[in-house]
Amino acid sequence: ILCLVSAAAALDFKYHHSKELEEYLRGVHAAYPSLTHLHSIGRSVEGRDLWVLVLGRFPTHHKIGIPEFKYVANMHGDETVGREILLHLIDFLVTSYGRDPVITRLLNNTRIHIMPTMNPDGFEATKVPDCQYTLGRYNRNGEDLNRNFPDAFENNNVSIQPETRAVMDWIKNETFVLSANLHGGALVASYTFDNGNPVTGSLKGYSRSPDDDVFIHLAKTYSSNHASMYKGTGCDSRQTFPEGITNGFSWYQLEGGMQDYNYVWGQCFEITLELSCCKYPPADQLEKFWRDNKVALIEYMKQVHLGVKGQVTDKNGNPIPNAIVEAKGRPHICPYRTNEQGEYFLLLLPGTYVINATVPGFKSMLKTVEIPDNTGNFSALKQDFSFPEVSDQIRARVAACPKIPLYQELTRASAAVKPTVHILVLMTVILVIFK
Fold first, then answer.
1. Boundaries of each Peptidase M14 domain copy (predicted)?
2. When comparing pLDDT for 233 and 230, which is higher?
3. Measured between alpha carbons, how far is 138 from 142 in angstroms, rounded to an integer?
4. For residue 393, what pLDDT is reported?
5. Is the dihedral of CA 159, 164, 169, 172 positive or negative?
């Protein structure tokens, strides 16, 4: 046991290739079996495991009321800083549990999933590290994994890769609430939407989601707690980011990105963190990158406890899956629904909201809530809904949203309304003239 603990603690500031990374994760799990759960969510094109280490008081399964959080790194194989700082984050969390009261409460009230590399093939293919770009960016099939997800705005006709499919299934099988995707090549926190159309304001150069205020808060939470990201200076004089954040579309348009997919189809708020101007910096800089990001990584995880959460049940107290629960005034294009345990989690900033719970076929239930900032208490406001007229025998399951460009359909509907309005105006003018 002492050898296992020693092995888990001996994490150097260097680059860990696939075998070393796996050995380290296995060592941590062996040393902290009650606090961690190690599993592979799938395999890369070349057959490498896509390892995820889960940390928390209940690491092996979802527990009602405890939100799910995830960090994913190394999606582009040649962007390497995130891969290593996530290993050091794991080390910090397991060694601080039971000693540091903040980390102890965080792990007792949050289930944290950490995937150090989504593209192990690309990392191994990067034989000559470069600050700018290498072919290791792509997976073994030459595909950019951050252009490989279904897009909510356009039919991007991509061939879904094994790594992408594994992450999509992972998102589907967990109740993720908050996430971040770690990249390199810039220094900024970027938030949804990455793509857009006139409905979301793309004509004005900003693609706004219904939860834009929350996304700005999440991005600022990370940048303001980072050693220098908040300064917004970027990596050269041509690129500046006020307060160290940017709307993804405002920076550059991206189809098939993972953060938009998480938000639209996964009911999970995700931002993209660009952590280093150099994509693959020398190993002797890794310790500074860890110091620069340590506080921000922890503070960002706390935000999973923003807003409101609860259960929707029937007259017998049984959970109702697939009930729609959303805050009034901010509907999602793919309505947010309860999970198998009838749970919902809505990330909302402090304030007064009307929460609308709907079981299809029954009258909606509205409740006004005053949401405080509960991130320091590691628990969102709890608000349950009970439908006395619904029984287990009469409620039906509702299919999930289809993987089609949902906002494309919204644009068509919006465009279809305009000619109708013009015709009505024209008819009114003609009637006035004839009278």
1. 14-304
2. 230
3. 5
4. 66
5. negative
Strand-pairing partners, residue 188, are 274
What average pLDDT score do residues 126-132 get? 90
Cβ contacts of 274 within 8 Å, gap of 6 or more: 183, 184, 185, 186, 187, 188, 189, 190
Which of 286, 305, 324 is a domain's end point?
305
Percent of the residues in the chain that have a pLDDT greater than 90, as a whole number: 82
Q: What is the DSSP string of 207-273?
A: ---TTHHHHHHHHHHHHHHSSSGGG---SBTTB--GGGEEEHHHH---SS-HHHHHHHHS--EEEEE
Q: Which two tokens stand for residue 20?
A: 């070393």
Distance of CA 93 to the CA centre of its chain: 20
Q: How many whole angstroms separate alpha carbon 260 and alpha carbon 253?
A: 12
pTM summary value: 0.93
CATH of the domain at 132: 3.40.630.10
| pLDDT tens, residue by residue, 68-91 | 999 999 999 999 999 999 999 999
pLDDT tens for residues 327-373? 999 999 999 999 999 999 999 999 999 999 999 889 999 999 999 99
Overall average pLDDT of the 286-292 stretch: 98
Asked if 75 and 171 sit in the same domain, the reply is: yes
Tokens 């959460």 locate to 309
Pairing of strands 308-314, 381-382: parallel
Active site residues: 274
Three-state DSSP state, 290: helix
223 and 363 fall within a common domain: no
Amino acid at 13: F
Contact (CB, 8 A) for 121 and 140: yes
Output the DSSP codes for 6-41: HHHH---SS---HHHHHHHHHHHHHHSTTTEEEEEE
Q: Which two tokens stand for residue 156?
A: 């991007």
* Residue 123: inside a domain: yes
Alpha-carbon distances of 44 from 117, 141, 418, rounded to whole Å? 10, 10, 47
